[in-house]
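Input/output pair, single chain:
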Amino acid sequence: MSKKEMQKSSVSYLATECDKVGEIAIHYGFTVVKPPHITADDISKAKQFKEFDHIGDAEEKVALTRWYTEQNLASQAQPLLIHFKRPLKGSSVGKKSNEEMYGFEIMGSAKSTSEALMIKAGMAILSDMGYKDLYLDINTIGDKESAGKFERDIGSYFRKNSGLLSGKAKQEFKKNHYVFLKENLEENNEFIKSAPQTIGSLSELSRVYFKEVLEFIEAFEIPYKIKPTIFSNRSFASHTVFEIRQAVDKKEDGILLAYGYRYNYLAKKIGMKREIPSCGMTIVVKKNPKFNKKVIIKNIKKPKFYLVQLGETAKLKALNVVETLRKSKIPVYHSITKDKITGQLSGAEYMCASHVLIIGQKEAIENSVVVRNISTRCQETVFTHELADFLRTFL
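Output:
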């Protein structure tokens, strides 16, 4: 696709306005789009996933994957970070009149930083909305190898312990043990408390992946617990599944405000030639007039700074820097999901940034940032707690 064709194509899906949630999403690197409508073909292809569609969003994931391919979005800088209002037109997902549903997708990245970025953005949005006492429930189903081992383990456990279940419960388990475990009914407690967990069936690759996600969460100082009874769509999902909740009194389960999961295996399941590694998140909250106020996207202040991170330790620090600057109303471009320095510096040049903010291993340890003027190559090292004040001198 030529540059002219791409520009023409972009007009069809890029949004021209957003609300406050969209404005925060833009600060985190998301592009606000007009999402696709769900077609009859999308609904037909999604039927194969119905058995494990606990959330009821399989049709939307199919539509988004189809749209990504039709718009040739793989030819653009990857990964693609998009934000939009849910539910999509044509969806069977219901929305209460006093609710708003917000969708976030990161498509074209198989890295654990995608989940980290999404969770961090979700926490920031909900916090800005006034929600307090937020915490994260998280689990993993791993890759295909991990899922296969879990199926064998849970099947063996059932054969040895089915005597703990009533006749009806046995049938429910055989019908769909993911739903059975997720519901976690009191009468089945004795069976479930000793049942195998997906985290215990992880391949080495999946174990490392989940460890990386948890390291990010801990670096962000987000309260979390591993909850083995939350699952994503077994038919096409993989790795991380999470829920953001608000604690209420001392109840075990707080109010569900957001949920998300990775879905790497969907594209080929619906006939695409290659997989499109992706993850998505949905925020469901009560309508807030303050956040519904429209903002013209082109009027949102464009960043003058581009954050570059070098190494895993630096990645852990980088998103905290993004959030600190956002709260100080200093927008910054970043490529947290990228590893190579060349790709990040190219992004800084493409975005016409005036300064590059560099966090390497040394800076991550010292809680500092190197601020480099792109034109003069002059640079200065600044402690992170002083960064916002320092950058204001260039605005």
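The radius of gyration is 22 Å. The mean pLDDT is 91.
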